[in-house]
Amino acid sequence: MNREDFNMLKKNIVYLDNGATTLKPNCVKEAIDDYYDNYTANAHRGDYKTSLVVDNKYEETRSKIKNFINAKEGSEIVFTSGATQSLNYIIFGYFKNVLQKDDEVLITVSEHASNILPWFILTKEIGIKVKYIELDENYKVTIDNVKKAITNKTKVISIAHITNVVGDIRPIEEISKIAHKNNILLVVDAAQSIAHTKVDVQKMDVDFLVFSGHKMYGPTGIGVLYGKYDLLEKMHPVNYGGGMNALFTKDGYIELREVPIRFEAGTPNIEGVIGLSSAIDYINNIGINNIEQYERELRKYLIDKLKELDFIEIYNSNTDSGAVAFNIKNVFAQDTAIYLDKYNICVRAGNHCAKILSDALKVNNTCRISLSFYNTKEEIDLLINVLKNSKNIYNEIL
Amino acid sequence: MDSSERRNIILKNYQDNTNRKDVEDSDYIKVNSRNASCIDNINIYIKINDDIIEDIKFNGEACVIAISSTVTLINNLIKKNIDEALNIIDNYEKMVDGLDYDSQVLNELLAFDDISKQPSRKICATLASRKIKEILEKSM
Question: Which domains, and CATH codes, for chain B?
C-alpha cells in the first residue's frame, strides 16, 4: 500500500527492517522543510508571529498524540528523544523515588535492553529485585505465568506490548487488571506496536507507555512518554534547565513549571515534533486497522512461503505481529544478511538488543524480517527466490 | 590472488574445525573477542612456552570472514616465536588497512588482501588478530 509516498522505495530496495526503523513518507520531510523554510523559531520562547506558529504546532502535536493513543489529557504526553529516553525517564524520574529495597519489578527475557538495563541499575542503586515472568513454549506471556510471578513484593510490571524479536502480542488489558488488583503499576513499551495496531492507553489502562517516532514513519530523535497525570505529578525531572522552571532564585530555590513542560528542559526537538505530527496524520489517513489487517495477511503469506523451504528454521511461526526471526540452517545470521543485501534485501541480523532472549530461543543470533504496510507479496516472492538460490551462499558473499 | 583462489582458501579454512574447540587447561591464556557493532563473538586460547606459541584454539560464533581469518591466522602462528608472530600480525593488519606490507610472511592470509576495499569487513577480518596481538605483547 501507498508505496508511491516513499522515495526510498524507488531505489530498488526491499526494505524488511521496519522493526529497526521505518522509511519516511514525503509528507514528513515536507513538514520539516516547511518549518525550516517558513516559520523557524524556538518554541515557548518568542513574542513574535513565527514563534507563535511553532508554539501552536508543538502543542497541537501533543494533542494529536493524545487522541492517537486515547489519553485523557494532553498534559499526559511528554516529548522525549525516543522510547529509550522515555523508559529511562520513567525509571529514574519516577520509580527511583518510590521503590524501596527488595521491591520487585517483573520483566521478561524478551524485553529490549532499554527496558532491562535501567532496572538493573536500580538493583544496584536502591536494592530492588528484577524478576522474570516465565515465557511459554511459544515465548509468549500468559496470564497464568503473570499471576505466578507476582509476589507481595511486586510493585511494577514493565513489558513490551509487542516484542522486537519474537513479535508476540501481550494481553496488556488483562495484565493491567491483574496488576492493578495487586497494587502494581504497569509500564508498557509500545515501540514495536504503535505503528502496527491500535494502542489505547485508557482501554489498556496502562500507567506509563512509551514509543519512538522513527518506528512510526516519523523522524529519529523524537519519542513519547505517556503517564497517567497523577503519576506524572509525582515524577521528578531528570533534566533541569531552560523552559522547565517557573522561577529560581540565587539561594537555590526552584519552582517547576507544570506537567508535562517540566520534563522538557532545553530547546525541544521541534523538527522532530513537527515531523511526528505529519507521520500521525499519515497513519490516520491510511487507518491503523487497515494497516494491521494488511500486515497480518502479509505475515501469513511470508510464513507459509518460508515454511516450504526445508533449509530455513523459523523461531516464531506462532505469533501474529510482523516480525519473523529465522536462520538458514548452518549459516551464521550475519552471513545470511550480507547475502540478502547482495540482492538489495534489507534484514537485520543479530540478537536485536535482546541479549538474554538467546537462552529461551536456544540460538544466539537470528535474521529478523519486520514488515510494514508498504511491503508486498511480490517483495516476499523475491526474498523467497533469493533464499531458494542460497545453496552457494559463500560463493556470492566472498 | 584471483577471486576464485581467494574464495577457495577462505572456504576451506572456514570449514576447518581442527583448532575450533574450547580448552579447559590452565596452561592456556583465554581471551574473548567480540565485535560490538555486529555479532561476532569468539573465545581464543593461547599456550605459550618459552617464547614459542605452542598452540592456539578458538570457539564461538562469527561470520565467515571472521571465522576463516581466525583459522588462517592461527595456522600461521602456531610454533612461531613471539617476535615472528607479532611480525605476521603487523603485516596482516597493514594489508587489511590497505598499507604497504611484506607479503612473504603471510602465506594463506593473503586470501584476505581485498578486505581493505571493504571497510565494514575489517573488524571481521581482525577479530582474532587484535586480541592475539594484545596477549603476545603482554607475554614479551
Answer: 3-139 (3.90.1010.10)
